[in-house]
Amino acid sequence: MQTGSSALEHLRVLDFSRVLAGPFATMMLADLGAEVIKVERPGIGDETRSWGPPYDATGESTYFQSVNRNKTSVAIDLASPRGLARARSIAQDCDVVVENFRAGVMDRLGLGADELCAANPRLVYCSVTGFGRHGGADLPGYDLLVQALGGLMSITGEPDGAPQKVGVALVDVLAGLFAGVGILSALQYRERTGHGQRVEVDLLSSLLAALTNQGTAYTSGKIVPGRLGNNHPSIAPYELLECADRELAVAVGNDRQFRLLCHTVGAPHLAEDTRFATNPVRVAHREALRKELCSLLRRRPAAEWARDLTSAGVPAGVVNDIAGAFELATRLGLSPTVDLPRGPHSSVTVTRNPIGLSLTPPTYRTAPPPLAPPIDRLDPAPG
């Protein structure tokens, strides 16, 4: 049964954020029904409007499209008294404000948390920064920089190769998700008490929290992890293995799966080998194990092995490109994309929200908005 309503349809969000982390968070709220008003610079807009290639068939940046559906664009010059007055006026009637300027910028504009929350005590005010409001306030919060300074690049790449960034701005995405959780938590508290509050998320802390087992290897085990390529620091075989035509991802998580792997590749004796019988010894002898397995897997194509291993209960799969990944999701009935009309003869296809809700599922109401004309041209300044 569906109620026909959206979970957050009662919320109004004023979004000053640009690029990825903040817009990702506000898009999640918009998908769940919130009204999101995106404040952009007149004539320029969000920086990502000009980030390309790639562009779609109409010449619009696919980067901007990826995180700005279900929003309304408002062009306001925050450098002008008229624009600031309009922004403050809109904030008075909002439940949430999101911004990702450098620390201190919004305070200098008179749009900081203290001022807006004093005028609207129920307001939830979320700031996303690169390195926090204090010691790192002057550091620019770019994803690549945080991946480098935050240690992610040091554990990404081949052991004898250079540090590598992840293939997407993952830290921004993580920060956006943390921001969304923080906002929803603050709204739940407001529901009980009537009080809004400040939510703060920074990219560096988001990355450190997301290091999970690798981070705790350092904090608790006093081990500084390094690059292992596609190997796992604590499990084997959990990597890419060479087949006749290309590599195969094999993710063996326990000894039972390892026995099934050995049986399927025609080498049951490997499961009894003292070097490989349990996970700890497999990790200790991972190179010898890899050599044994690859000598067997090279006899057949990766897709055939993936089929047989999966049937046997061994987690395995080929390495897809992005097109192959979307094709797989479609084949599995996951409906990975949605088409959003943006004119009588045009639409944009974007990746759907992955959250499934039985009564209030995400909705897709509008395409990423065109840049609005300056607000000054639409109506007089507020009284």
UniProtKB/TrEMBL annotation:
Quote the protein name from its UniProt record.
Crotonobetainyl-CoA:carnitine CoA-transferase CaiB-like acyl-CoA transferase
Q: What molecular functions are annotated in GO for this chain?
A: CoA-transferase activity
Identify the stretch(es) annotated as Disordered: 343-383
Q: Which InterPro entries match?
A: CoA-transferase_III_domain, CoA-Trfase_fam_III, CoA-Trfase_III_dom3_sf, CoA-Trfase_III_dom_1_sf
Keyword Transcription regulation in annotation: no
Q: Which residues form a coiled coil?
A: none
Keyword entries, A-Z: Transferase
